[in-house]
Amino acid sequence: MTERLPADNSLPLSEPVWRRDFPLTSSGEDEVTRREFVRFLVLASSGFAVGDVGIALWSSLRRVNTGSPRPIVALDQIPVGTAYLFDYPTGSDPAILVHLPGGELRAFSQRCTHLGCVVFYEPDRGEMECPCHEGHFDATTGAVVSGPPQRPLGRIDVEVRGGTVWALGASPEAAAT
Amino acid sequence: MMSDRVPPPPPPRIPRSRRDVPAALGLFIIVLLSLQVFLLTVAVDAFHSDDPGLAWVTAGLSVLLALGSAAFYRYLR
Questions:
Q1: CATH code of the region A70-176
Q2: d(CA A100, CA A55)
Q3: pLDDT per residue over B10-32, tens digit each?
Q4: Any idea where the domains of chain B sit in the sequence?
Q5: Do the Cβ atoms of A64 and B50 come within 8 Å?
Q6: Does A55 contact B62 at a Cβ distance shorter than 8 Å?
Q7: Of A31, A34, A45, the CB nearest to B65
Q8: Ramachandran sector of residue A134 (left: φ over 0; alpha: ψ -120 to 50; beta: rest)
């Protein structure tokens, strides 16, 4: 709420001169004390603390779905030096199976650990590359080679059973080192 | 015709010493809230990397900061 100063512009000496040019004052401007100001600080800080505790609780109580064993693809459909895209452990978890030049098989979550873009296999460099921010991961271990990601790719254990590649379970990102 | 009702007197002014926000207080707020934002990002990162230990340490520090600001409020005139 605003109110005008007296029409004769008479101001006490303690008031600044600019009040003569802008003779409006807010009746609410004198109502905020330091204590009230700090009260908002306490509320904001408490809100952050509650959020942090909630995240910690959620982090402790959630169960990470590591998936159950299931067949992915026939081995002869993945030539050496190529990759095969599939979903594991759920249909909304993109994953990538790589047939390394040495004949070994590796599977990783396709989600980049930086901001979640999908990574692709680069056979020439033997790396997994995230095209969003040029993140590079080792195709053998999933470890970060370069770029902004700080954590390795989530690893999926695979095994060949009767000519078919099976996914056995997914490991959390932090355990893939 | 003019009304001869007298307007109610304005509420007493709060002393300036209780209204001014000194620079130290402003800095305290900026530092504290910046720390809280930083701790929240660390907590989210711990959640994504499935590291509950780090998340709990972060939550503990955040609660300590909140308690500190509450104590500040308690003793501020």
A1: 2.102.10.10
A2: 38
A3: 666 666 655 566 676 777 778 88
A4: 35-77
A5: yes
A6: no
A7: A45
A8: left
